[in-house]
Write a structure and sequence with these properties.
By secondary structure, the protein is an alpha/beta fold. It is built from 20 helices and 21 strands. A ten-stranded antiparallel sheet has the order 13-14-15-16-12-17-21-20-19-18. The chain has a seven-stranded parallel sheet with strand order 3-6-2-1-9-10-11, sandwiched between helices. Strands 4-5-8-7 form a four-stranded antiparallel sheet, with no helix packed on it. Helix 7 crosses helix 8, helix 7 packs parallel to helix 13 and helix 9 packs parallel to helix 10. The radius of gyration is 32 Å and the shape is elongated. The protein starts with a strand and ends in a 5-residue tail after the last helix.
Length: 594
């Protein structure tokens, strides 16, 4: 089965776009409010490592659960506040909402997306990341706690190579409306879908006041006091807002994708959000591949993901990890993402994914091709007289047949499976088997103006030479695999992974695939329709073929066997190539030779 890969990003992933981490954001606010009394005291409180600790304390106070707050404040003096704790709490009760509102307002302005500054690096980073992941996964899934539009913008700038599915559908103008069912709808776009789960919301989401959740193409800013902004503020405890829409659906969809994923890639996430991190624990304990990209990734993994208390030394952490890692597939890339490190990170990530990859597509790539074959068509379509055209086409085919015969030093009559009587020619360059030229007699071809013959050989160079030297037109190219492939089970898996039904197949009366025969249309455009056929049984011959349905251009499907390969075809069927890439491949394969 092709790998399913889920990417999850935290604040560290967007630091390269000049978006601060939660710790850096707190420091920025401390400088801004250095002479602002209570809010400054709150931000500078010892033990409040980042903005999450600050907002968690405000949340504790709001809920009258002061344990987190008192952990740092009991018997302590806050800078700028008298030691009288009673006076402190009185002031805090009065100013709490203003403090929180000020912080959220600054959060909106700090993480606002700047297109001129942020678009290019975001497009470059996520474009390359998706390209790498797309080599090993049929679909791309991304979860994030970030509020910015890095992923959405990267997709929109990809020239339809990647299309973002985030649970919203277009409503009118620059506005889209929330519809969680979009995640399960069949994808009909041109590019590869990127399913995005923003579990803490986005700066461009809000409640429109009539019960609808809407998204604007631009960040909409903080509407202080209105209650319309639905972004979930960064705190340490589980977010109660995630019981409501859109967050209930987003978190549920993300967890389902994680359960079915084979590989998870974590970028710049601290694991402190327990409602998100718990499913990661099960994923890891199930022995699935877990990759963490962050210089703090190892420490955060040990301290936050599996332990309530931080280790008091690196030696204690390493000793614990030696026992913990048994039976697990863990990889740590200890670098910050960013222009200076991304090339190195991507190389290491690709190496890890390659070492952990497996499944049908890779299995086919490892097969040795036993035989190459193609159907040759000689036509005289420009002749107005069908009968004369038919006979001239047959004469052209016979000339090629005799030419190959004249260059051979050994000729025997053989039975070509599925083709009938043919001849095997051998010379110093190799062996080629050819059926005798004939005019098709199929009922659908009664008025045909062409002749055909079938040619096959295990020598690719010899076949290519015959085709090119004689300017032969061919429309079907087939690879026979020397090792048998379980095609009967392969076809349903392609359908399962891509949702793509074959346009024709061998089925039994109850709809089950039998015989291992199925045809898929790769691309259909004006003038060109290209299909592939996968055929075989558990104990029979196995083939993968590529066909140019309308046999254009007139001189043949010249470079099909060079541009397409079994691995490339399977990659296309698994949805790992965009429509544009397939179209370009077909265009190159049907060009008239110079």
């Amino acid at each position: 089965m092709s790998n399913s890969i889920l990417i999850f990003t935290g604040a560290g992933a967007s630091a390269q776009f000049n978006k601060p981490t939660t710790k850096e954001f707190k420091l920025q606010l401390s400088k801004k409010y250095k002479d602002s009394g209570l809010i400054q005291s709150f931000l500078d409180c010892p033990g409040f490592e980042d903005i999450e600790h600050v907002l968690e304390s405000l949340k504790d106070f709001e809920l009258s659960h002061n344990s987190h707050l008192m952990k740092y404040l009991k018997n302590a003096t806050l800078p700028g506040i008298e030691q009288n704790t009673g006076e402190f709490f009185t002031t805090l009760a009065r100013e709490r909402d203003n403090i929180k509102s000020d912080i959220i307002h600054d959060l909106f302005s700090t993480y606002k997306w700047n297109e001129s500054e942020n678009d290019k690096p975001a497009s470059k980073f996520y474009g390359k990341l998706f390209d790498i992941v797309g080599n090993y996964s049929s679909k791309i899934y991304v979860g994030t706690t970030n509020y910015d539009q890095a992923i959405e913008q990267a997709c929109s700038l990809s020239n339809l190579k990647y299309e973002c599915i985030d649970g919203f559908e277009h409503y009118r103008g620059d506005t889209s409306i929330w519809n969680g069912k979009k995640f399960s709808d069949e994808f009909n776009g041109q590019g590869k879908p990127v399913y995005l789960y923003k579990v803490h919301g986005s700066l461009n989401w809000k409640n429109d006041g009539s019960g609808n959740i809407v998204k604007n193409n631009r960040d909409i800013g903080y509407d202080r006091g209105s209650g319309l902004n639905i972004l979930i503020a960064p705190t340490l405890s589980p977010k109660t807002a995630q019981e409501k829409e859109p967050y209930a659906t987003l978190l549920s969809e993300l967890q389902k994708k994680l359960e079915s994923a084979d590989i998870c890639i974590i970028i710049g996430f601290s694991f402190r959000d327990q409602h998100i991190s718990k499913p990661f624990q099960k994923f890891i304990n199930d022995g699935k591949t877990f990759i963490v990209i962050s210089p703090e990734g190892f420490d955060n993994y040990c301290d936050e993901l599996f332990n309530d208390e931080k280790f008091n030394s690196s030696e204690a952490r390493v000793a614990w990890f030696r026992k913990h890692r048994s039976g697990k597939k863990l990889h740590f890339i200890d670098k910050h993402v960013g222009e200076a490190n991304n090339e190195t990170i991507f190389k290491e990530l690709d190496k890890i994914l390659k070492s952990n990859s497996g499944g049908i597509k890779e299995e086919i790539d490892s097969q040795i091709i036993k035989n190459y074959s193609c159907d040759i068509t000689f036509d005289e379509l420009e002749d107005d007289n069908p009968e004369r055209a038919k006979m001239n086409a047959l004469k052209s085919a016979e000339k090629v047949f005799e030419l190959i015969r004249s260059k051979s030093n050994r000729i025997i009559e053989i039975d070509i499976p599925g083709r009938g009587i043919g001849y095997e020619f051998q010379n110093k360059e190799g062996v080629v088997r050819i059926t005798k030229p004939s005019i098709p007699h199929h009922s659908k071809l009664e008025n045909c103006q062409f002749a055909q013959m079938h040619i096959e050989t295990s020598n690719y160079d010899l076949l290519s030479k015959i085709l090119n030297e004689n300017s032969l037109m061919y429309w079907d190219f087939k690879w026979e695999l020397s090792q048998e492939l379980d095609v009967v089970n392969l076809i349903p898996k392609i359908k399962e992974l891509t949702g793509k039904n074959p346009f024709s197949s061998s089925t039994s009366h109850n709809g089950d695939l039998v015989g291992g025969n199925a045809s898929y249309s790769l691309v259909s455009t004006e003038g060109v329709k290209v299909a592939t056929t996968i055929s075989g049984t558990k104990n029979g011959a196995n083939h993968i073929s590529i066909t140019c349905i309308n046999r254009k251009p007139k001189k043949g499907f010249y470079t099909a066997h060079q541009n397409f390969s079994p691995g490339k075809i399977m990659s296309i069927l698994f949805g790992e190539a965009t429509y544009i890439e397939i179209k370009n491949l077909v265009d190159r394969s049907t060009e008239e030779p110079e």
